[in-house]
Amino acid sequence: MILKVKNISNIGGEVKAPPSKSYSHRAVILASLAKGTSKLYDMLFSEDTLASIRVCKALGAQINKKDGYLEVIGTNGRLHNSCDGPIDLANSGTTLRLMTSVSALSDNEVILTGDESLKTRPMGLLMDALKPLGVETESLNGDDKAPILIKPGYLGGETNIMGNVSSQFISSILISAPLSKCGVNLYVLPEFKSKPYVYMTWDIMRKFGIRSVKAYYLKHDSCNQEHQSCRIDEFKIKKQEYIACDYTVEGDYSSASYLLALIAINGGSARVKNLFRTSKQGDKFILDILQRMGATIVRGDDYVEITSKGNLKAIDVDLSNAPDLLITVAVLAAMAEGTTNITGVAHARVKETDRIDTTCRELEKLGCCLEEHEDGMSITGGVSSGVVDSHGDHRLAMAFSLIGLKHDIKITNGEIFDVSFPDFIETMAKLGFELELV
Ligand SMILES: O=C(O)C1=C[C@@H](OP(=O)(O)O)[C@@H](O)[C@H](O)C1
Ligand SMILES: C=C(OP(=O)(O)O)C(=O)O
């Protein structure tokens, strides 16, 4: 379907940010591993988080939608796969990565697969890191990608992994480690990208009763001690139980980036509720970015206010820790005065699409002047009307729709926002930006 602008009127107002996708995945997975019954409030029900609910049910958790919350009757770590064939995780990289280690806690084999995009996501480093922990996995197409067969038996012990491809591998081992036979010592070798997602993992593990986790920085012997990037991170997780709890999912800064960018580009002001000042989400970084580009940001305890005159200026920005902001920032750059340099996001090439490539190709279709780099891009402000394609990437569809504020733009395969932000059209409409799917 084509996503396009229907009407624009009085941009601004007040909206609630949708629930965090990352915390929703983690909440249902941890509640499924826990002893007892959890109540999960304000869960995100998007295509991706539904994949996590589906696999947790297949492995034995009882999950029921109640009035106002999701009830999860946990397994106390005793998983059994009731699914005969592969479990379909659709487009969700987080579910595939987190559940690869968790599936090894099942007393029978599990096969995880997904759509054509998910089958391109790298898995080799995680599979290799699980081996020393006694976990046997097999890529059924022999390409280190899904479908992945995971065999039962999770001993634990010591392992290491490179941190430069996906932090989801590290979150995966951390989440499963307390239920291994003897606990896990995990060494993360530099560079460690997307690190805030691991802080989020650790944050919610504590809410579900995990106490015995220690994290250290170690210096690599052969490295120059002065050099920050030579630091190795070590996590020590003892064997222990997850305990059920009542948990409310906070708002999502990545989804909110589209709401805030709308005001920044157009001009006007808005309040976005459900965004917490103390959040561990790395994508909070969007607030600094918008401020540096010329918007005014006021941070409340549980909301953000933005005011903009609509005249944005270019910046230099390193997105190593906030790769999901890439396409939002690229669109802001295309609508700003001057040349914005985006660096640090080579790992955005292995997401739903190669986001550096797809973003550059689609911006070029709109006449944008840019240079593509291995780990980012330089974008000089200035675009015109045109037709672009989402390539089946939810973030591309949502971010590019904002260009519709100033130019006639149509996005083919535009319905894909359901992956992370099912109420995208309704929420944008509340701010006066009416989109439609035709
Ligand atoms: O753990 C998570 O919830 C996520 C981690 C990030 O991936 P990488 O660690 O692969 O960058 C991010 O891009 C993804 O949308 C969600
Ligand atoms: C990369 C993303 O998600 P995932 O890795 O879960 O597919 C995303 O939401 O932008």
UniProtKB/TrEMBL annotation:
Its EC number is 2.5.1.19. GO terms for molecular function: 3-phosphoshikimate 1-carboxyvinyltransferase activity. Phosphoenolpyruvate binds at residues 21, 93, 121, 168, 355, 395. It holds the Pfam family EPSP_synthase. Pathway: Metabolic intermediate biosynthesis; chorismate biosynthesis; chorismate from D-erythrose 4-phosphate and phosphoenolpyruvate: step 6/7. The active site is at 324 (proton acceptor). InterPro entries: Enolpyruvate_Tfrase_dom, Enolpyruvate_Tfrase_sf, EPSP_synthase, EPSP_synthase_CS, RNA3'P_cycl/enolpyr_Trfase_a/b. 3-phosphoshikimate binds at residues 21-22, 26, 166-168, 194, 324, 351. Its main location: cytoplasm. It catalyses: 3-phosphoshikimate + phosphoenolpyruvate = 5-O-(1-carboxyvinyl)-3-phosphoshikimate + phosphate. One of its GO terms (biological process) is chorismate biosynthetic process. GO terms for cellular component: cytoplasm. It is found in: Cytoplasm. Residues 6-428 form the Enolpyruvate transferase domain. Keywords: Amino-acid biosynthesis, Aromatic amino acid biosynthesis, Cytoplasm, Transferase. Monomer. Belongs to the EPSP synthase family. Catalyzes the transfer of the enolpyruvyl moiety of phosphoenolpyruvate (PEP) to the 5-hydroxyl of shikimate-3-phosphate (S3P) to produce enolpyruvyl shikimate-3-phosphate and inorganic phosphate. This is 3-phosphoshikimate 1-carboxyvinyltransferase. The lineage of its organism: Archaea, Methanobacteriati, Methanobacteriota, Methanomada group, Methanobacteria.
